[in-house]
Specification:
This is Phytoene dehydrogenase-like protein. It holds the Pfam family NAD_binding_8. It comes from Janibacter alkaliphilus. There is one protein chain. The chain is an alpha/beta fold and 490 residues long. It folds into two domains: 156 residues, FAD/NAD(P)-binding domain (3-Layer(bba) Sandwich); 251 residues, Polyamine Oxidase, Chain A, domain 2, CATH 3.90.660. The chain has 18 helices and 16 strands. The protein has a seven-stranded mixed β-sheet, with helices on both faces. Helix 1 links the parallel strand 1 and strand 2.
């Protein structure tokens, strides 16, 4: 029987384990932390009874995920729901834009820009059920739906600034700029619109849902499905070298640099160089709050929105992104606020609600984000501080200490540069294969990246199964894992 070791138990590591086990492989997952799950956890971080997502919070692509469907997670109780408004972007004095599930509903609230918004996203939403199949795969592939993907790609390949320049009102410009900011790259770069176009289209097609019971509920289902398939799990053990595991396959849910350390001399020189020069994104610093009666946003839509972007107008969003990518702390950082309880009321305790917030900061920024975040929220919601009953912070260093994949606080699995959008972690028709026989990379540093929880691991496992079928995917144990200080040195 073919055997496999999965190093790392984040959503991608577990997806790889489940996919392999479902194909008849005997799988063992090894996790360095004492708790499995990586960023897919929920806990009572502030007050008893308030359920906060620790990292992964919103799941706009879960309804379309082939992995979720093939793993039959709905049978285990997977349910998702959305707030009345998907996203709001306040600008002050009650003004601002809002993203509603309906394209037409969004357009009617954008005034003179309504028809432009509807013309831009209407056809993409109509195609999305088919195009998402191509979006959730490596960029370099033979498309299943070439015409729809071409329409999507024509817009996604533009700088985000080109999309906002086609809009006229400050509200509409800020609304798209805020969604594009999820890529954590300057708005003027080639293809910097891609993440914004994908997330906006997904929001219109199916919302920005949260998992009922918290993201940790999804983790529980993945662990249950893995156990049903006979997957073994070992926690509290860090793998340093391939020689520590004696299996036919090794799946690495790690950063590319960590993968290079583990694989050592078995990694081809070109791949080793690519893995070591892989760029990580700027960081996020997180603040969880227990808020009595919720945040008193001046903008009415923000009081009903699952996600609120507090980033100011398009120019402020652009300036904040420019600063963090250059290693500077913005004077007015971009802040994302999650009000998941509006979609999943069971996370609250009476009229006290869990609120999730983070701000973009330079990689490795060491400071406490509390005032950075609350000062920005106060601008759009005066009186918020008076309602805060408890807080819990997570700096970039604390994030990386808890999860080694979050380098410098990078929660998106690597910088969204043009090169890495097209070929991450390296240029290859099979980005999961490391070049070391039987060893595959399956983390969010591979396509389709962060936000499509589990898809990287699912696709990597399918690549491994295909390689086994052709006789090219099995390790030659005893010779493949020799690591040296030369290869593993920093």
């Amino acid at each position: 029987m073919t055997t496999a070791t999965v190093v790392g138990s984040g959503p991608n590591g577990l997806a790889a384990a489940i996919t392999l086990a479902d194909a008849g492989v005997r799988v063992r997952v090894i996790e360095a932390a004492d708790r499995p799950g990586g960023g897919l956890k929920s806990s009572e971080l502030t007050l008893p009874g308030l359920l906060h997502d620790e990292c992964a919070a919103f799941h706009p692509l879960v309804p379309w995920s082939p992995f979720v469907r093939e793993a039959r997670l709905a049978e285990l109780g997977l349910r998702w729901s959305s707030a009345p408004v998907e996203l709001a972007h306040p600008l002050g004095d009650g003004r601002g834009g809002a993203l509603h599930r309906s394209v037409a509903g969004t357009a009617t609230r954008l005034g003179e820009d309504g028809h432009r918004w509807e013309r831009t996203f209407g056809h993409l939403v109509e195609d999305f059920d088919h195009v998402v199949e191509d979006i959730l795969r490596p960029v370099l592939h033979l498309p299943a739906h070439p015409l729809g993907l071409a329409r999507f790609g024509a817009l996604a390949a533009l700088p985000a600034r080109a999309v906002t320049s086609a809009l006229r009102s400050p509200s509409a410009r800020a609304l798209f700029a805020g969604v594009a900011a999820h890529a954590l790259r300057p708005l003027g770069g080639p293809a910097s619109a891609s993440v914004g176009v994908a997330l906006t289209t997904a929001a219109h097609a199916g919302g920005w849902p949260v998992i009922e019971g918290g993201s940790g509920a999804l983790l529980d289902m993945l662990l249950r499905r893995a156990a049903d398939l006979g997957v073994e799990l070992e926690t509290g053990r860090r793998v340093h070298d391939l020689d520590e595991v004696e299996t036919d396959l090794v799946m690495l849910d790690t950063t590319p640099a960590t993968a290079a350390d583990i694989i050592g001399d078995a990694l081809p020189a070109g791949t080793a160089r690519a893995y070591r020069r892989f760029q990580h994104a700027p960081g996020v610093a997180k603040l969880d709050l227990a808020v009595e009666r919720g945040i008193p946003w001046l903008q009415a839509d923000a009081r009903r929105a699952g996600t609120v972007h507090v980033g100011g107008d398009e120019r402020e969003v652009a300036a904040a992104l420019r600063d963090v990518t250059r290693g500077r702390l913005p004077a007015r950082p971009f802040v994302l606020v999650g009000q998941q309880y509006l979609a999943d009321p069971g996370r609250s305790r009476g009229d006290v609600h869990p609120v999730y917030a983070y701000c973009h900061v330079p990689s490795g920024y060491p400071g406490d984000p509390t005032d950075l975040i609350l000062d920005r929220i106060e601008e759009a919601a005066p009186g918020t501080r008076e309602r805060v009953l408890a807080t819990r912070t997570r700096t970039t260093a604390e994030a990386q200490l808890a999860n080694a994949n979050l380098v410098g606080g990078d929660v998106i699995g690597g910088a969204s540069t043009t090169r890495q959008l097209v070929g991450r972690p390296r240029w290859s028709l099979d980005p999961y294969a490391t070049g070391a026989p039987g060893v595959f990379l399956c983390s969010a540093s591979t396509p389709p990246g962060a936000g499509a929880h589990g898809m990287c691991g699912y696709l990597a496992a399918r690549s491994a199964v295909d390689a086994l079928a052709t006789g090219t995917g099995q390790r030659s144990r005893g010779t493949q894992g020799r690591s040296t200080r030369r290869n593993r040195g920093r």
